[in-house]
From TrEMBL, chain A:
Organism: Galendromus occidentalis (western predatory mite)
Top-level division of the source organism's lineage: Eukaryota
Name this protein carries in UniProt: Geranylgeranyl transferase type-2 subunit beta
Reactions performed catalytically: geranylgeranyl diphosphate + L-cysteinyl-[protein] = S-geranylgeranyl-L-cysteinyl-[protein] + diphosphate
Subunit structure: Heterodimer of an alpha and a beta subunit.
Pfam families the record matches: Prenyltrans
Gene behind this protein: LOC100897565
Record's GO cellular component terms: Rab-protein geranylgeranyltransferase complex
UniProt cross-references to InterPro entries, sorted A to Z: PGGT1B-like (IPR045089), Prenyltrans (IPR001330), Ptb1 (IPR026873), Terpenoid_cyclase/PrenylTrfase (IPR008930)
From TrEMBL, chain B:
Name of the protein in its database record: Protein farnesyltransferase/geranylgeranyltransferase type-1 subunit alpha
Family from the record: Belongs to the protein prenyltransferase subunit alpha family.
Alphabetically ordered keywords of this record: Magnesium, Prenyltransferase, Repeat, Transferase
Keyword Magnesium: yes
Annotated Gene3D superfamilies: Protein prenylyltransferase
Pfam families attached to this UniProt entry: PPTA (PF01239)
Gene Ontology CC, one term: CAAX-protein geranylgeranyltransferase complex
UniProt xrefs under PROSITE patterns: PFTA
Domain of life of the organism encoding this protein: Eukaryota
Organism taxonomic ancestry: Eukaryota, Metazoa, Ecdysozoa, Arthropoda, Chelicerata
Cofactor: Mg(2+)
MF-aspect GO terms: CAAX-protein geranylgeranyltransferase activity; protein farnesyltransferase activity
Protein EC: 2.5.1.58, 2.5.1.59
Organism annotation: Galendromus occidentalis
First-tier enzyme category under EC: transferase
């Protein structure tokens, strides 16, 4: 049975070893070089950028005291009077960056730097009657925002602040005929949204609603002969989608349904010899793909990396310190 | 990016002389060596200043145009722009025109799509929108934002007539377009529903499609998705066609996996088990999955 497929070919001379020292240097340089074009152009997602960098470094065991005090100061200066956090000082608060800020602070064990009660109020103010969440006061709805809201509250130990039933029901209303999830009811299934929905249900301890078998099949169908995973049918493989799919499989206990060695080889091939990981071999690297590439390798059992928690995308020791136990289905 | 040579930096404009720009939290006296970054740094310096002062005026509206051109991913620019549109009672049609190029140049950016949606919501009139989206889908037929916006328009303004024909057309162009298959399901579900007659035509449409291109995950997934709406006669028909396809040598992991599911759903355990064993052999990447299916069947 032979079939044509959208895929890539891994070059013969691609990297096969994990380049920890190189990635560490790449991330330190990225953060130091505040006048670089990349740095200046990404102000609008600064807190997320910081989160990707510190999580990647934490995974590699090279976070040490990486600008800790400065970073905590930045996070602090991003909190607004409505309790929410913005990507950078003076921008508007948004649920995406509120979660990033909280993830950064729990990594540094510095939650007291911000007003946590105000964050909880902010998250609750975005909760809608149908159980969905707005991203900000302008009213866009997305299952990503449900995860941001629920994960933020869980990290702050304030899940009691929202109605779990309606939140769950909204997520379930986004389930499609192929067993996957989209951004809103009836939006096409997309690996990133599948992760968001599964992680939300996991935190709320509601995974029993999911058809793990059907969804597991859709997810493992994402693996292509190159070993990489794509985010939707007929799309190219990508290191970040490899993470969204892989972690979704981990949450529903089906990680063993894909070929782990081939995926590992794909992610390693996405490394640049000068450090950093790209979406595909040979492409431009960035902190985002570097973090999710490493997170994927960690989930695949790479023993030079710390263990990642699939639900929160934080090092497992951080989640253990907070005594959180998100639901994971048995294999 | 505005590569406009006539662009005057805000620091050189007399009508902005009363505002002191605010720098990003970096070293003050450093120089960036990228050609257009001066425009970028200049307009965002003034943006930060007006965000701080809260000024809502025509000149700020013009500033957001420059900022959107320089970096449309900055979500705050769009928030501020909407605030200004409401405050200054700007012409919404003019804003829709402005958004045409913005979306064309930044199709993957969800801010621009959402901004357009808000304008149409405020306007309360979807005239021209379906055509606009259709044109955008000519560029990228799988653009998630475009499809999502299309679904919003269809539902909000109840525009189902002719939408199934649009799906037909899109799938005739590319039967592997998963977004169009998803749209098909959405349209049927929200317009006619999966009645018995509709199922007859949906089954034929899908079987024709898989007969034409066998290795196509999306059409098989659609078939799997509508299978639950089929009556017994329709189920038997689907199995019959698939078996014929299969015995004529047109095999794929997908057709075999659908056969496995349909056998299982109709209680034909032995045939299902045989299919699972075959799949385990052929689909090595997912051997563990097929092994799991075979084991379940044996345990039943
Ligand atoms: Zn990616």
């Amino acid at each position: 049975m032979a079939y044509p497929l959208k895929d890539i070919q891994i070059p013969e001379d691609a990297n096969k070893e994990l380049l920890i020292a190189k990635h560490t240097k790449y991330l330190y340089d990225f953060a130091e070089n505040k006048d670089s074009f990349e740095y200046v152009m990404t102000e609008h997602l600064r807190l997320s950028g910081i989160f990707w960098s510190i999580t990647a470094l934490d995974l590699m065991g090279t976070l040490r005291d990486f600008n800790k005090e400065d970073i905590i100061e930045i996070v602090k200066s991003c909190q607004h009077s409505n309790g929410g956090l913005s990507a950078a000082p003076r921008l508007d608060s948004h649920i995406l960056y509120t979660l990033s800020g909280v993830q950064i602070l729990v990594t540094f064990d510095a939650l007291n730097a911000i007003n946590a009660d105000a964050v909880v109020d902010y998250v609750c103010s975005l909760h809608q009657k149908d159980g969905s969440f707005f991203g900000d006061k302008w009213g866009e709805v997305d299952t990503r925002f449900s995860l941001c809201a629920v994960a933020t509250l869980a990290l702050l130990k304030r899940l009691d602040a929202i109605d779990i039933e309606s939140t769950t029901n909204y997520i379930l209303s986004c389930m499609n005929f192929d067993g996957g999830f989209g951004r809103r009811p009836h939006s096409e299934t997309h690996a990133g949204q599948v992760y968001c929905c599964l992680a939300t249900l996991s935190i709320l301890n509601q995974l029993h609603h999911v058809n793990a078998e059907q969804l597991g099949w859709w997810l493992c169908e994402r693996q292509l002969p190159s070993g990489g995973l794509n985010g939707r049918p007929e799309k190219l493989p990508d290191a970040c989608y490899s993470w969204w799919v892989l972690t979704s499989l981990a949450i529903i206990g089906k990680l063993h349904w894909i070929d782990k060695d081939k995926l590992s080889a794909f992610i390693l091939a996405c490394q640049d010899s000068d450090g950093g990981i790209a979406d595909r071999p040979g492409d431009e690297v960035d902190p985002y793909h570097t973090n999710f590439g490493l997170a994927g390798l960690s989930l695949l059992g790479e023993n030079r990396l710390k263990k990642i928690n699939p639900v929160f995308c934080l090092c497992q020791d951080v989640i253990d310190r907070l005594k959180l136990k998100p639901q994971i289905l048995d294999p | 990016m505005s590569s406009d040579e006539d662009h005057v930096l805000y620091k050189d404009r007399s009508d902005w002389a009363d505002v002191k720009p605010l720098d990003i939290e970096t070293d003050k006296d450093s120089v960036i060596n990228i050609a257009y970054s001066e425009t970028f740094r200049d307009c965002y310096g003034y943006l930060r200043a007006v965000l701080k002062s809260g000024e809502l005026s025509e000149r700020v509206f013009e500033l957001t145009t420059t900022c959107a051109d320089e970096n449309p991913s900055c979500y705050t620019v769009w928030l501020l722009r909407r605030k200004l549109i409401a405050h200054l009672k700007k012409d919404l049609r003019e804003e829709l025109d402005f958004m045409v190029t913005q979306i064309q140049e930044n199709q993957k950016n969800y801010q621009v799509w959402y901004h357009r949606q808000k304008m149409v919501e405020w306007l309360g009139d979807p005239a021209g929108e379906l055509e606009f989206i259709r044109n955008m889908l000519e560029w990228d037929a799988k653009n998630y934002h475009a499809w999502q916006y299309r679904q919003w328009i269809l539902r909000k303004f109840n525009l189902w007539d002719g939408e199934l024909a649009v799906c037909d057309e899109m799938l005739a162009k590319d039967c592997r377009n998963n977004s169009a298959w998803n749209q098909r399901y959405f349209v049927v579900l929200n317009s006619t529903g999966f009645t018995s007659e509709v199922m007859d035509s949906e089954i034929e449409f899908t079987l024709d499609s898989v007969r034409e291109v066998n290795y196509n995950e999306s059409s098989w997934n659609y078939l799997r998705g509508i299978f639950k709406h089929a009556n017994d006669k329709q189920k038997a028909h689907i199995i019959n066609v698939l078996e014929k396809e299969f015995s004529s040598g047109r095999k794929s992991v997908f057709s075999l996996s659908i056969l496995l599911d349909t056998y299982e759903a109709t209680g034909q355990k032995d045939l299902a088990l045989k299919a699972a064993e075959q799949l385990k052999e052929h689909d090595l990447l997912r051997a563990n999955y097929w092994d799991f299916r075979a084991r379940l069947l044996r345990e039943e």
